[in-house]
Amino acid sequence: MATTNLVKRLQNIMRQDSGVSGDAQRIEQMVWVFFLKVYDAQEEEWEWKTRKDANPYKSIIPEKFRWRNWAHSRDAEGKVISDALTGESLLSFINEMFAALKTLPITKDTPLRQAVVREVFEDLNQYMKNGILLRQVVDVVDEIDFSDAEDRHTFGDIYEGILKDLQGAGRAGEFYTPRPLTDLIVEFLNPKLGETFSDFTSGTGGFLTSALNHLYAQVKTADDVKAYQNAVLGQEWKPFPYLLSITNLFVHGIDAPNIRHMDSLGRRVKDWEADSDTIGMNPPYGGSTEASVKGNFPAEFQSSETADLFLVLIMQRLKRGGRAGVIIPDGFLFGTDGAKLAIKKKLLKDFNLHTVIRLPGSIFSPYTSIATNIIFFDRPDATPVEGTLSTKKTWFYRLDMPEGYKHFSKTKPMLKEHADPIRAWWKKRVEIVNDEVGEKAKCYTAEELLSGNCNFDLCKFPKEETVILPPHELLQKYHEERAEVDAEIDEVLAEIEAKLGVSL
């Protein structure tokens, strides 16, 4: 089928429906329909593979709610099915289906590839009110033939485009990290088959699919296929991105996506084992956490900033010999109080913090204008000797805006080639310091960083003329920066309360 106009066709249909309001709801509506279609295609494969087994595959979805049994409006020969559901009967059926899928019986013995159906639908909504328009949406999605390799590959590209569109879809934008960044971080971490690649706030699955794309070239044997199927681990507690990531991994050929629907910060950090060889993440930042969440962390690491807590979790779960690449806000680099200082000292003492990449401030535009960075660190094979530092030297590198760009935007996003200067420098590791660019790349010893009170705000961007933002972006930037300041204030107040033994 011609899939290139798929999303546009679906959006045009849904814009006529009074129940769907805004891009975020349109995308959510599209994706649960995609999920059922993709899942049915996966079930066909599982049924074929187990047809001769003693216990052949049996769907967890009741027969009448399986895509193949209700979604088609034409038969295999293209003839119209006269009793295909539409209008009010389709709306009633979909409402009944949602109720059934939200309450599917799940036990500890239910295979993950089946349990995900209930987990995906538990918090989802069906927004459309016009059953005739809903029938048109289902018909468009039903045109995709997942048994056709070209159709499946093309749909993978389309799905990636949908996730990219989330950047401009209100609340959903926070879950998408630009593909050039996830690919770059995975490239430098270089995961291998047999290792576990993890993202504990996996959003739409961008890091996980970048890792899968990287690993796919290593698949040569049947054992490699098994290793590939079990290569990635995700955790996501919000229902919509959880649905997006599960569908994303199905599209990438993973039979049983190992993405857990949970709050990664919701249990004591010391209860986690070191279970990951490589970790690539873009933790949420600029927001405060509840006191109960902070209580899951040792006192010295308790912070109101979620990105700080995720760094502690990453350090806990990284195996000996493991590698991590994490996107963090500027506030972590220059923050030298409380938890931030303790975390940075631990990174220098117990880990090898070898590289910090400074990123342009508009790289996540229009979702946020907060400046971000990538930190890369390894966990040594052995526990460091008391009084020594695992980090010997840390390189800082600043990625400047590409020529001809003042800032990135939705219409002018970061492209793969914009990260090429990082790739070129990464291999050579030379200092770049001159009057023209200032300190663009420089190496510091761990002792130098400690003597500077762990202020990592190095290789800064040169000051530029103030950019006047549109009113809605200005307000958004104000709320984000205020949230970050509020988080720091909460942290200081918590320290004061602890010292005074009172609650202010």
Any overview of this molecule?
The protein has 504 residues and is of the alpha/beta class. The chain is 43% helix and 12% strand. It has 18 helices and ten strands. The protein has a ten-stranded mixed β-sheet, sandwiched between helices. It is globular, with a radius of gyration of 24 Å.
Structure summary:
With 504 residues, the chain is an alpha/beta fold. The protein is built from 18 helices and ten strands. α5 packs antiparallel against α11.
Tell me how many strands there are.
10
Treating each run of at least 4 consecutive H or I residues as one helix, how many helices? 18
N-to-C CA distance? 64 Å
Q: Give the averaged pLDDT, no decimals.
A: 88
Report the uncertain regions: 169-173
Q: Percent helix among the residues? A: 40-55%
SSE topology string = HHHHHHHHEHHEHEEHHEHHEEEHEEHH
Structural class: alpha/beta
Radius of gyration: 24 Å
**Largest β sheet strand count, sense and barrel closure:** 10 strands, mixed
Shape designation: globular
Query: Which percent band covers the strand fraction?
Result: 5-15%
- Please, what is the oligomeric state? single chain
Strand order of the largest sheet: 3-2-1-4-5-7-6-8-10-9
